């Protein structure tokens, strides 16, 4: 059996099958699932393919990027690839939808390509709990914590999202705002957006301010489009809100544009604090006040950890928390 048989049985072309087997991102989820199902059903081992053998000899480090429009991950990825290349390591980058199961994709990739290590940019702890035990490669989760998951081959590097979210709320409260909304992400416990949203709500309560998730929170993906829609829905429900904590900078930038289109001025009518500190936030109008994650340290710790694990220098998983900074710019008005 060869790749042509897999193509015939799956109903897809040889080119599509080849892209699936080589971990390329430009394949639909439906095609990938179908091809991999046929591969598993037939017990196909692509080791006879010369190109595969050449790739296997390099055993690249696999990187799974959760969310194809997350600008923070673009900045992180650039740093990670640079450091890996400087260490003589190849990397295979795989982009996932924001709601896709990254551990399942890693297992599919492991079966076909046998990577020497895996880096996850973003991840849902529930997916790790369900099936990460089947992953055998040394792995590092960047931007979320794996400390409580108990896997011997899974380290993590993160920002303290809860502390950072509290800092964002304190900035708005300190500026005199009493009606503060939260936009973006979801409230699922353990996910990054859930950690940020719940910590922010707790901090509002600690400050003695009223907050109701049903009224003062609007979820959404980490995109400008969803930020734009979220602020429209939020202000329609709670027009007395004077400030918003957006769970990422790209969400915040969508909020700024929506506010403008609604006839509101930022920060005169609506103050906004973002999260991540991406470069684009420096050039928005107004410049965005935001929580800055240290992408350099996140990338350095992540790469150093995965290389140590691959080389047998890590006797147990390591878990790091990288400091954050609040950048006070132009998008918050003091009442």
What are the defining features of this structure?
335 residues, 6-stranded parallel β-sheet, alpha/beta, 6-stranded mixed β-sheet
Question: Which sheet architecture does the biggest sheet show?
Answer: 6 strands, parallel
Question: Any idea what the shape is?
Answer: globular
Strand % is: 15-25%
Radius of gyration: 22 Å
One letter per element, helices H and strands E, the order comes to HHHHEHEHEHEEHEHHEHEHEEHEE
**In order across it, which strands form the biggest sheet?**
2-1-3-4-5-11
- End-to-end separation in angstroms reads 72 Å
Can you describe this structure?
It is built from 13 helices and twelve strands. The strands form two sheets. Strands 2-1-3-4-5-11 form a six-stranded parallel β-sheet, sandwiched between helices. A six-stranded mixed β-sheet has the order 7-6-8-9-10-12, sandwiched between helices. Helices cover 45% and strands 16% of the residues.
SSE inventory with pairings:
Layout: H1 3-10, H2 14-21, H3 29-42, H4 50-58, E1 61-66, H5 71-86, E2 91-96, H6 102-113, E3 118-121, H7 125-131, E4 139-142, E5 154-159, H8 161-174, E6 180-183, H9 192-206, H10 213-216, E7 217-218, H11 224-237, E8 243-246, H12 249-261, E9 271-276, E10 289-293, H13 295-310, E11 319-322, E12 324-327
Parallel strand pairs: 1-2, 1-3, 3-4, 4-5, 5-11, 6-7, 6-8, 8-9, 9-10
Antiparallel strand pairs: 10-12
Helix pairs in contact: 1-2, 1-3, 2-3, 5-13, 8-9, 11-12
């Amino acid at each position: 059996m060869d790749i042509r048989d897999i193509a015939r049985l799956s109903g897809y072309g040889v080119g599509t099958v080849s892209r699936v087997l080589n971990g390329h991102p430009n394949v639909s989820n439906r095609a990938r699932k179908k091809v991999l199902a046929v591969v598993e059903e037939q017990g196909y081992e692509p080791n006879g393919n010369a190109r595969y053998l050449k790739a296997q000899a390099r055993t690249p480090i696999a990187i799974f990027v959760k969310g194809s429009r997350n600008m923070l991950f673009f900045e992180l990825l650039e740093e990670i690839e640079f450091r890996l290349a400087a260490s003589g390591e190849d990397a295979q980058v795989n982009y996932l939808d924001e709601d896709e199961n990254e551990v399942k994709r890693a297992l599919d990739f492991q079966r076909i390509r046998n990577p020497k290590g895996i880096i996850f940019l973003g991840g849902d702890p529930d997916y790790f709990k369900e099936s990460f035990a089947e992953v055998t490669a040394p792995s590092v989760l960047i931007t979320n914590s794996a400390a409580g998951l108990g896997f011997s081959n899974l380290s993590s590097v993160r920002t303290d999202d809860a502390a950072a979210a509290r800092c964002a709320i304190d900035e708005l409260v300190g500026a005199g705002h009493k009606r503060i909304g939260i936009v973006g992400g979801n409230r699922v416990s353990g996910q990054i957006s859930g950690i940020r949203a719940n910590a922010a709500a707790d901090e509002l309560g600690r400050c003695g301010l009223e907050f109701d998730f049903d009224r003062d929170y609007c979820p959404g993906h980490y995109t400008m489009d969803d930020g734009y829609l979220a602020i429209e829905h939020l202000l329609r429900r709670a027009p007395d809100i004077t400030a918003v904590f957006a769970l990422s900078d790209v969400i915040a930038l969508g909020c700024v544009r929506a506010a403008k289109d609604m006839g509101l001025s930022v920060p005169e009518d609506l103050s906004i604090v973002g999260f991540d500190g991406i470069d684009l936030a420096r050039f928005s109008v107004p410049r965005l006040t935001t929580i800055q994650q240290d992408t350099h340290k996140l990338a350095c710790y992540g790469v150093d950890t995965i290389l140590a694990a691959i080389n047998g220098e890590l006797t147990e998983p390591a878990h790091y928390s990288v400091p954050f900074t609040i950048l006070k710019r132009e998008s918050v008005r003091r009442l």
